[in-house]
Amino acid sequence: MATVVVTGSGGLIGSESVQHFVQAGHDVVGLENDMRASFFGPSASTAYTTERLLRDFGDSFRSCEVDIRDSAGVERVFADVAGSLELVIHTAAQPSHDWAATNPQVDFGVNANGTLNLLEAARRHAPDATFIFCSTNKVYGDLPNLLPLQEREQRLELPDDHRYFRGIDTSMSIDRSTHSLFGVSKVAADLLVQEYGRYFGMATACFRGGCLTGPNHAGAKLHGFLSYLMRCTMTGERYTVFGYGGKQVRDNIHSADLVAAFEAFHGSPRQAAVYNIGGGRDSNCSMLEAIAMCEEIAGRELSWTLSDQNRIGDHRWWISDLEPFKRDYPDWGITYDIEAVLREIHDYNAELWLAPR
To answer: For residue 174, what are the CA distances in angstroms to 165, 171, 186, 191?
Structure first.
């Protein structure tokens, strides 16, 4: 039976990957050490999700408490499954702009050095395996902020005739921009994944994600905005919108749609592939639009304030161009829009988030 290794297996995309590939008939090995709790506090812990996966999937899922910065520990896991390993899904990361600035060495160690350890272990023990990396649109830094955006009532928007109106593709440069330290560490990892594909002929892909979302997201103040926004709306916790008048736009892709893209790529892999991936034109919203939807779904108003200061390297507008991926994998498409995502987040987490009240 084929084996899949998933790093960050207790996180949003990691747990979705575990569930998807176990149900598809694979053995799955997760690498998870719950660093989210260290990064963002106990409310962001992935321990509950890991326990659920172990309970639900029994012998088909094994969780290894391995820090991806530990090259020897990573090596042991890959050596153990070398004969059956067909797919690596690398989702483990330090994911926050703000947190990265508090400890750049840890951020770079996890995001860049950890990725190098995984690539090298895959090259040594399973060079024919597909290696999928969850990259980020932050590799482009704040260059999207130079786009000629028009201010509308609830959002910023590109003119209909602009080349990126359909969404931003990988023709955008990653140079001459402010990335944030998080963006820098992810750029390093992204380029490593590409070069292992080119130098060593490995099947690798960088999926440069917009906002990734879904009901399993342990939304925290510094990361996971739709989940955290809905939680604040439901519980009465105060929310801060950072900059741009709340009109900044994000596309949001449901974890199930993203993992379906992983499966499509694995079915017909390429070397050193790079895709911008997100909700595209099918699933995007401004902060103001997201707040209004959360309030309607939760049936109560959000308590929120607007800060004049945007986060360093943050985007005023981002929508991913999904057409390049759809051309390569025409059977794939977005199945969740923003409203469907938010309703699922609300319904799935209502008991957990409202229990303390």
So the answer is: 19, 9, 12, 11
Dihedral of CA atoms 192, 198, 204, 206 in degrees, nearest 10, equals 50
- Sort strands 130-136 and 85-90 into parallel, antiparallel or unpaired: parallel
Cβ neighbours of residue 200 closer than 8 Å, sequence gap 6 or more = 123, 127
Q: Where do the DSSP E strands lie in the chain?
A: 3-7, 27-31, 61-64, 85-90, 130-136, 150-151, 156-157, 203-209, 211-213, 239-242, 249-254, 273-277, 284-286, 304-307, 317-318
The structure tokens 């342990």 sit at: 218
Contact 217, 256 (CB under 8 A): no
In 3D space, the residue among 88, 152, 148, 160 whose CA is nearest the CA of residue 124 turns out to be 88
66-80 as b/e, with b when 16 or more CB fall inside 10 Å? bbbbebebbbebbee
Helix (H) or strand (E) holding 119: helix 114-125
How far is the CA of 164 from the CAs of 77, 122, 146, 311, in angstroms?
A: 42, 36, 12, 23
Strands (E), 198-320: 203-209, 211-213, 239-242, 249-254, 273-277, 284-286, 304-307, 317-318
Chain-centroid distance, C-alpha 58: 26
Quote the pLDDT of residue 221. 66
pLDDT along the chain (357 residues), means of 10: 96 96 98 89 86 96 98 98 98 90 96 98 98 97 96 98 98 94 96 98 97 80 79 95 95 97 98 98 97 98 93 87 98 97 94 73
Q: Which of 82, 10, 39, 90 is nearest to 223 (CA)?
A: 39
